[in-house]
Protein 1
Amino acid sequence: MGRDSAAVAAGRGDVWDSGRTDSDGTLVRYAGPQLDPFTRYYWAVTVWDKDYARSSSGVAAFETGMMGAGNWQGCWISDHHDINHKPAPYFRKEFSVGKRVKSARAYVAAAGLYELHINGRKVGDHRLDPMYTRFDRRNLYVTYDVTRQLQDGANAVGILLGNGWYNHQSGAVWNFERAPWRNRPAFCFDLRIEYADGTHEVVKSDLDWRTSGGPLVFNSIYTSEHYDARLEQPGWSAPGFDDSAWDGVMYRGAPSQRVTAQQTVPIRNVTQYRPRSVRKLDERSYLYDFGQNMAGVTKLRLRGEAGTQLRLIHAERLREDGHADLSNIDVYFRPTDKDDLFQTDVVTLSGRDDEFMPRFNYKGFRYVEVVADRPVELSAENLTAYAMHSDVTPVGHIETSNDLVDKLWDATNKAYLSNLMGYPTDCPRCTTTTALRSTRSGSPTTATNSSPTACCPTSSPPAAGATARPTGWTGRAPSPSSRGTSTSSTGTRSRWRIATRISNAMSITSTAAARGTSPRGDAATGCPSARSRRWS
């Protein structure tokens, strides 16, 4: 193993060489020096068979990340609002690149969900990063290669934060809104730029960032998103944008003492579906049938009168009168706000060519009923559906002489993938209540059809909460005897186990965090330069 790929290909490693190990085993543990952070290493393997015939692999590579708390330079920052504020916060910072860039890596840790933008464009195609953890005990960061996104001269970076499970504002029987980690979303950011002359620079999150609200006026991973296109600020993440009306940011305490790399296969929009049919129900309502029950989102493209409000109701079945029926899937929803609508995105048009797709939410559905507050003309071109799941690589396929068996396999496979969002969930239409019970019915599909790397220990629920139950907690979950059931093709049958897991972390006293404080009571600032580095 070494830093020079050519030398490794020639059998010379400047970091470590195990030498030949005579053994009937296949595992050889690394026994070299401590690896350096932010470093690309190359490695190759040579094996000998029983006749001492030699065979060598090709050269492979991996790159190390932060490798410890002391290597982060950014601070945990957020806006100045509390947990009840609905609009999502947007953040931006400009910087300059004056030398030839060799490589650039962006490291983003977030409490909540986020999207990263550089020079006016979203970076990558991941959805719902980072994955769920027990946020007050561990947080995940994601690394991006952004070498090609940078340009000579002026650059800008933007981050949009979503609530996710960190700041759950919707009511349900599982009391997510009482989670002890709950707080306004925050993030820590390092952009490490390696220049061709051997120097490097870090663009980091600090008090020189700016923040503002925007068109995403409400987001709940459990229910929906509300988007007001009239509030768009074109170019907000591009250089040269006038942010003089934006506000300053504030330091936040690190959500936990552990920040580690996310290692799961990312969630993506994997399959696109066009409407199989579109039916006009009346002058203000249209029913889209995508012909497939799925976990995912819809993208709306429409030009209409400014101020027109559309409700996109996502459902798995229809009422007898042909309208969307949510009665089989909203039974656990306990709304505390009349404007928080289950599986119903709300879009307000700007009068321009508008486009909306949820960023921090997904749903279980086949049908979408679009209801406007005034007469509107819609067609199949206005709405597209995307099935979302961890983008695992298929490793097998079943095809038999029995058509029923083939259909059962296909339905089972689709059901499992609809429940694979970084880790197995129990029911997309109840939106990622994260029960592992679904693995019981899905495991044959996993074993025969998908790469096992979808669910890594770094983000699975056991690791997220693998500590003893704290004393003093009295939250209770629905018992197995009272759990609800469903025969949805996208959902498995039980959802009580995750409720037990979450309620174990619920306090009898609400932990609504005051603005700018950490729910753990950690140091008042999440900036490594301003406090002792306790997280890694």
Protein 2
Amino acid sequence: MKRFLDKTWAKAAAFVLTLVFGVLTVLGGVGTAALISYDVFLDDGAFARQSLYENRCYSAMDHADSFLRGNLANAGLLSDADGYDYSNIENSPTAVPGEESIPSFLKELSQDFSNEFTLDGFGCHLTVASDDTGEVYLENFALTYTDKPLYTAQSTRLYTLSDGSIYALTYTADLLQVETAPTYSYLLLSWLTEHTGLTIFLTALFALLALFFFCFLMASAGHWARHEGIHLTWLDKIPADVWLIVLLCTFFIGWEAFYYEWGRVFFCAALVPLVLLFLCAFAAQCKAGTVLRGALIGRIARFLWRIVRAIFRALLHTLARLPLVWKTALVGLVIAGAEFLLYINDFYRVRYGVFLVMKLIELLAVLYIAVSLRTLQKGGEKLARGDFSSPIDTRYLLWDFKRYGQELNDVQGGLEQAVQEQMKAEHLKTELITNVSHDIKTPLTSIVNYVDLLKRCNVEDEDAKKYISILDEKSQKMKKLIEDLVEASKASSGAVELHPTKIDLCEFAAQAVGEHEDELKEKNIEIVLNFHAQPVMIIADAQKTSRIVENLFSNLRKYALEGTRVYIDVNGGDNFGTLIFRNISKFPLNIAPEELTQRFVRGDASRSGEGSGLGLSIANDLCELQGGKFNIAIDGDLFKVSIAMPKAQ
């Protein structure tokens, strides 16, 4: 079967045979319906035959009645109220009006009646008799003993005479089996009644054949010789909706044009081939997948959708580029305009519920905007505090609020990444300094020990003694620098073990001044210590705090101007005890205060002094590790350092 799918002659034959067997199936279905309506399958055709015989008998009696009324009317025996036009009846005998003249008049029509209603013409034996006496007035022919009626029917007809009286006549029709030419409907129904089984069998056979060839047409749609796959011809490319529009318009125009029954039947039959062509084209389009894509309505809808989408996108793009203030103003103007129009049309006065619903919607919108702004505000506050642990939840934010929330999350992510990278860099730098310091410390220890051994030797050469002294000084300086580097690395990384205790800051300051007063006097620097009589108790690690103060005195010894005073104040606040150092610098302080706490930064820009630039950095880190605050202030040549440590409760 597959080899015939792309054959043109096979498609043409299947098309014609589908139409032929389809018509035969319809005719068979009509015949079967007629048989069902006459209950042929219940009484073996008895009712159908009776209906056929009865119809012929009543048809003959109706013709006889018309014949008789026409003659009575022309004779003047019928009243005008009888309601029948008999102007076409001629050459009837005349009679005197009156009921008693009816029998004689009818007997005069005997010959005309016999000539009009012959056996060959009507196949019935007709008699007209009085309804009261039963006397037979008219008979078309006499029955013989061989005549056996198939069916007998009787009917009484009433006649309104010219004098106003009513006369009744009884018609009797005996249907005889004669060799006449009956009507086509009679012959067809008779044949169907006699061949019921054959009718059903042929109808089913024609239906199966029509279905088979129709399925072949549907299967072969789109398949053509010398074309791989589905190929659409110019008929197949006509959109399905265009086919439907043409068919529907043709149907309605033809239905109105052919107003009589058989004309409409023939018109519908002529329309069937077009419908079959449409089905073939539709099947090919279904196989090719172009039903919706190629439909005219679909193309128009897609074109309109593109226009609407382009306009909508342009509006959205324009609105998206507007600032939030302008968007808010635009929405407010729209709402105000709508409410103004409703107000001037007295809509709110009639529709209280609508007014309340609108106000409720406005309230919910304002609440949503407030909640969204609060969410963004809290996210911004966390970001300002350096809290990167919880980003802004943008799932319930819309429009610009969601976009702003995502931008804040992006900023938070960038800052968090930058902080992590900075911490990683600090960790690597600290680790590098520690490792290098340890690597340098081992050979330096050997140098220091050998220098110490050389100092103990009896060296008489003065130049050699001088060189040994220089080696000792520089090696000790390098040893101190390495120790400061290691300590600075530990302090900045937090790898310092603390043992906080209660310390009297006044006593601590006095002790530190006593330890370093002599060395400052050598620089002609006077120390002025100011503190209250009551002790100021702080919580701090004594050793680490001593290192902080020692670094500050070392800084004074190196950079304080000789011949000046150093003021040291001890103050006790609510939460912190503060130790303040103030002195005049011997070098110009052309540097920011926060830079002095960085590593290897010195107040001496020429770096000609003995400092390493680590003292203040170590002091700052140790102070912050203990929960304190280390602050530097510069006012011209005035250098001020304050150390605030938590007070003991």
